[in-house]
Specification:
The structure is a single chain. The chain is α+β, with helices and mostly antiparallel strands and 257 residues long. The protein has nine helices and seven strands; from the N terminus they run αααααααααβββββββ. β5 and β6 form a beta hairpin. It is globular. The two termini are 30 Å apart. About 5% of the residues have low confidence.
Length: 257
């Protein structure tokens, strides 16, 4: 993507998309692949708005995966829409947290909008949390639950001390995993993260333009949605500890509301 961002996306991401979408295309025809290929071709020729429209049509039809969001984020960046770029790269990273290119590009964009740094401990937690997706962690915790249950039943039936030891270890891992899963659900599902997408936005002291401006938020910054009133959202900047109201059209949720 720049010069500062990695410009490796189209060929490699087309292969990834073909692998990820092959099963659905057998059932639904080859239209998603055709649209994706057209979008890549438009991007390659510098027709970024056309590429965006085509990628967005896949999103609208729920033909999505990390590859679609990655390419869509890159196209928005090339089209100088940094807020929309960050939204879609955030989505790509949530679906594919160990994707080095998506993480690199997202980090680069965050540096452009001067997203405040987290304290060291929170940074460490976010780094660890960011290397596994919610679906992966849910599956792992489920497997440990089955394993712990099986070992416990084995101990009750055979009274073997090894079963007891393994049961204790499995239960400890299960407990830690369950706590981690709860925190991840809180951060990614219960907390409604959104990105400013329409340029610098004035957050007001109430839902309406008649209210005074409390603070301004630049395009691309992370917000938390706290509530809503007609066409307005109550939002917060958690690192600064301030809240206000912005028009709904000025922000976009990272996950569906």
């Amino acid at each position: 993507m720049t010069d500062g961002m990695k410009e490796i996306l189209m060929k490699t991401r087309l292969i990834a998309f073909l692998l990820l979408m092959s099963a659905s295309c057998v059932l639904a025809g080859d239209k998603p692949l055709a649209v994706f290929t057209q979008a890549n071709d438009a991007y390659a020729h510098g027709q970024y708005q056309q590429a965006i429209n085509l990628y967005e049509s896949l999103v609208t039809n729920n033909e999505t995966n990390a590859t679609v969001f990655f390419n869509l984020g890159n196209a928005y960046f090339k089209n100088q829409q940094i807020g929309k770029a960050i939204v879609n790269l955030e989505r790509a990273v949530k679906l594919s947290p160990r994707d080095k290119d998506a993480r690199y590009n997202l980090q680069y964009l965050r540096s452009l909008v001067k997203e405040p740094s987290l304290p060291f401990f929170e940074t460490a937690v976010a780094w660890i949390n960011g290397w596994v997706s919610l679906n992966e962690l849910t599956a792992a915790v489920s497997l440990f639950f089955i394993a712990a249950l099986g070992l416990l039943i084995g101990y009750l039936l055979r009274r073997n001390p090894w079963y007891a030891l393994c049961s204790i270890v499995a239960c400890a891992v299960l407990l830690a995993g369950a706590v981690w899963l709860g925190l991840k659900i809180k951060d990614e599902v219960s907390t409604r993260w959104a990105i400013v997408v329409t340029g610098t936005v004035d957050a007001r002291n109430g839902p309406g333009t008649e209210n005074s401006v409390a603070f301004s938020v630049p395009e691309g910054r992370n917000l938390i949605i706290l509530g809503e009133n007609n066409t307005w959202y109550a939002v917060g900047l958690p690192r600064e500890g301030i809240t206000g109201w912005v028009e709904k059209r000025s922000i976009e949720a990272v996950t569906a509301l």
